[in-house]
Amino acid sequence: MRPIFDPVDFVIFDGYYQGEVTDITLVEFKTSQSRLTPIQNSIRAAVEKKRVHFEERRLKKETPKLLTEGASLKKQQLPRKLIE
Question: Are 27 and 18 in contact (CB under 8 A)?
Answer without folding.
Answer: no
